[in-house]
Amino acid sequence: RSVLGPPALQALMAAQPEWSVMLGGQYEPYDAPTASAIEEAFQRGDEEVQATIDGKLYVIVLKPPMKQQLSSDPTRQRAIQRQPAPANEAAASATAVASPSTEAPAPASAAVAEAPAPAASTEAPAPKRQRESPPPFAVLIFAPGAGGQTAKAMRALQDSALEREGVAVFRCDDHPPRPNEARWIKSSAGCAKNVAHVLAVARRAAAAHPTLPLLLGGASFGNRVVCEVLRSHRAELPSRACNALLLCGFPLNPPDKAEGADQKRPAHLLALPAGVRVRLLQGGKDEFNGPRGILALNELVAQMAATAEVVEVPGGQHTLPAAKGLKQLNWTQAQVNTFVVDAMVEFARLAAAAGGA
Question: pTM score, two decimals?
């Protein structure tokens, strides 16, 4: 195991391979010193290397499947990749050591780059290795907003980053009670039809993953529905359902309405019994926060019998992970995506560990 230090790749050509890490469903490059030091370890043939990033110690695994994992918790992993500069691939292949590895070849040195390029190989390129997700440790049953469809950005996060972190997702809109019938009855969040829909999806998820804990969650109006399911129909849920709720963008106050204009909304949270654990993942710029912003939700949480917490998403809007005003906050959308995924996965682990207790 090597430890990252000052970069020592000055002999390499300027256009050296790029190292990047999966953040929020897309690859983002490491900073130049970290990438250069990872490449140095890769060139030496090290199997792994340590790096301190944002004050946390990580282990960068350089043997397939390459990944970044938190030193204090190896289950917290992200995929990484190495992309050689296209202009140097031919020269690099001339000096690479022949091996069955399908990893990209090491870059050529400046001296080798001056030599004539070898004849093009007639061999077919090695296929790209498919990155495998870890086995799931929990299943999230996700209830969408009033429109009946999970927002595209949230769906993308769930299908990529969230599942790669070990959380399988069963969306209610993907499992309608009947074909083309996935919308809610919006006049009553806890009505029999809405509840039956969530219970049916929960049973389907339990059958598909017979050993995993199940976590109820949702977005917007779907949050109100799952609150009522867990409060009034706990006994009808599969036995492995967690006594917890992951609520993304709780619609506390209708936009452009006076605070408290609809008392049924806060009532869903206030009626949850002690013993239920709730994480409210709420955008700082959520249009449904009300005139006083997220402060009103924080005050409401303090009144709840359930154990609840608000996790504010910087710049987050109602349809998470969408966000605005990020430039002023010195954030990027990719960072917001990562923040949302990490908050969801962390709570899923906590809920799974507690189970139905």
Answer: 0.65
